[in-house]
Design the sequence.
């Protein structure tokens, strides 16, 4: 039986997550259920997409990923199944699976077969009534052609872009702030090579990348490579988001300052040009 992950903005105070698990286990009692995150900020589709994109590659082939961050619940937005060569994704057609649509072999299906839903459909809880049952049927091996109709126009959300500006300069954006206040960008580490760079963000600048959080003194701003392989700004034993007044979507710039990198960090105050 397949693994089913669950991602939502429901939190754990209310019984909504447990209810979806109950529906799944009623259809697929052998499914292995994994909570990816239920602390997605309410209605934050981009954060949910980031969580899924970051975590899904580490799950076994054939995993079903159920995601419910659904500001349009009860409207005419479609329910969707996205299949790739490695996984299936079930949830609202609101762009939450944009990253999966770019994966090899991806296909999208509008979930329009009520036989695979619960008998009664609420206008406020499609996670229980549509998405959880479909995810369970996927885990049981039901073919996507039985669950819905193939579509070629699933919703995609516009992505924040990173770019090479020339003259040794890169630009990008903060795409995620984790619970430690670390700023995760979309500038890939591969663009940095073995050079040292000055990163300008939030009115400050910091030179790096450093090797680890311990490369800086407590309370010091540092620039390093995140576990996802992109540029990250942090404060050792502190909160970079609070210190810099920066949240997801903020721009950052990197300028090359030395062609080889001895893995050192320093920081100083400066205005972003």
Sequence:
């Amino acid at each position: 039986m397949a693994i089913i992950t669950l991602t939502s903005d429901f939190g754990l105070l209310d019984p909504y997550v447990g209810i979806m698990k109950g529906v799944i286990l009623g259809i697929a009692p052998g499914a292995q259920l994994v909570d990816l995150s239920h602390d997605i900020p309410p209605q934050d589709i981009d954060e949910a997409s980031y969580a899924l994109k970051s975590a899904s590659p580490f799950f076994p082939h054939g995993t079903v990923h159920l995601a419910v961050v659904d500001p349009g619940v009860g409207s005419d937005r479609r329910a969707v199944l996205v299949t790739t060569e490695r996984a299936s994704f079930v949830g609202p057609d609101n762009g939450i699976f944009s990253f999966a649509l770019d994966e090899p072999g991806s296909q999208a299906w509008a979930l329009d077969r009520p036989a695979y839903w619960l008998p009664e459909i609420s206008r406020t809880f499609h996670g229980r009534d549509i998405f959880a049952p479909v995810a369970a049927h996927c885990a049981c091996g039901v073919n996507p052609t039985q669950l819905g109709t193939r579509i070629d126009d699933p919703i995609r959300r516009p992505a924040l872009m990173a770019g090479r500006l020339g003259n040794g300069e890169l630009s990008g954006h903060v795409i995620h702030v984790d619970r430690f206040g670390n700023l995760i960008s979309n500038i890939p580490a591969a663009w940095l090579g073995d050079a040292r760079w000055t990163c300008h963000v939030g009115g400050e600048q910091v030179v790096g990348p450093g090797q680890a959080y311990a490369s800086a003194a407590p309370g010091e701003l540092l620039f390093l490579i995140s576990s996802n392989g992109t540029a990250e700004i942090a404060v050792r034993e502190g909160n970079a988001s609070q210190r810099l007044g920066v949240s997801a979507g903020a721009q950052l710039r990197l300028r090359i300052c030395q062609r080889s990198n001895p893995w050192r960090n320093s920081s100083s105050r400066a205005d972003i040009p």
The chain is about 20% helix and 35% strand. The two ends are 55 Å apart (CA to CA). Residues 263-273 have pLDDT under 50 and may be disordered.
